[in-house]
Every structure is written in C-alpha cells, then in structure tokens.
Design goal:
Helix content: 25-40%
Strand content: 5-15%
Radius of gyration: 17 Å
Shape: globular
Number of domains: 1
Largest sheet: 3 strands, parallel
InterPro entries: Iso_Racemase_Enz_sf (IPR053714), MaiA/AMDase (IPR026286)
C-alpha cells in the first residue's frame, strides 16, 4: 500500500528499543517515494553477555516483535525489515550467531573480533558504521559494506527500487 508521499513503497523498520542510530542511518538512505516506519521491540532483559542471558533475551524478543509489527500495521506496510546488532566485545555470545549466519549462507568465517577490529562486514546495526566502512574501503583497498547499508539495499532491491544512492 502506498501513501501520498510514499507512492512507491512503505517499509517497517523493526528495531530493538536499545538502538539509537538505526533510524537515522535508514533515513539517510531514503529515496523519493519511499517511507520508513519504525516499530520498536521493547526489552526488559538487554543482558547478552552469556549464552543463558542471550537465550532469555531471544524468548522475550520473539514475543515483543509481534507488538512492534502491530504498532505500525495501520500504515499498510509493503515490506518488513528487521535490524538488530549481533555481536560486540560486550556481547560475546552474539559472535556465534554471526558465525552461524555467515556459515549458513556459505561464507567461510576465519575469526571474529567483536568491535575490536575492522571487518569486511561490520555486524552491528547500532553502529555508525556507514562512514567508517567508506573510510576502511579506501584504507583496505577492498569493499567494506556496513550491515545497515546492505540491509537497505536488499530491501530496495526486493521491491524493485533501483535508485542510485551513495554510501
């Protein structure tokens, strides 16, 4: 369903309530005729340092996600996008989640470093990684894509939005 200003597509951005920069990054990649509507996943248990606390968080996340989706259902969303950080030096239990994801899509993971070391795909969506990725690309001489940027590109591509955007 499209609205008057969003005559091409309306997306829901599903994000944890702890994220502070994701909406700004997605709006920075906004193209004409598209709108982003945020649904927040509330968490009372944001402790992710151990596998047990990560599991408790995931149980709560799954129930709260339904409320986040419901919170924007009247906007008649065309496509849902979920952004969530997966790992950091503070959340080592999330590193295995990242390894599992990339292994599942047939990528070889040789090491994880949390946020201590620049990687080809920074896995934290709550980072201001877009600018840093562009700088690293020049320094490393190879493509470095922030996960939030890749997520926006994917959402646009799945909806036949082919606009050229920088970053």
């Amino acid at each position: 369903m499209v609205g008057h200003l969003a005559n091409r597509a309306q997306f829901e951005l599903i994000i944890p309530s702890t994220h502070t920069s994701v909406e700004a990054k997605f709006n920075h990649k906004l193209v004409p005729g598209v709108s982003w509507h945020s649904g927040r996943i509330f968490s009372t248990k944001p402790e992710l340092s151990f596998n047990e606390t990560l599991e408790a968080f995931l149980v709560e996340l799954r129930s709260q996600m339904k409320l986040a989706v419901k919170s924007v259902c009247h906007a008649k969303i065309d496509y849902f996008v979920m952004c969530m950080s997966a790992c950091s030096q503070s959340f080592p239990a999330g590193d295995q989640q990242v390894v599992d994801f990339f292994t599942h899509i047939r990528c070889e993971v040789t090491a994880t470093f949390g946020f201590k070391c620049p990687t080809t795909i920074p896995a934290g969506t709550n980072l201001l990684a877009v600018k840093a990725s562009a700088e690293l690309e020049v320094e490393l001489g190879k493509s470095v894509i922030a996960i939030s940027t890749a997520t926006v590109w994917h959402a646009y591509g799945m909806n036949e939005i082919k606009d050229q955007i920088s970053g």
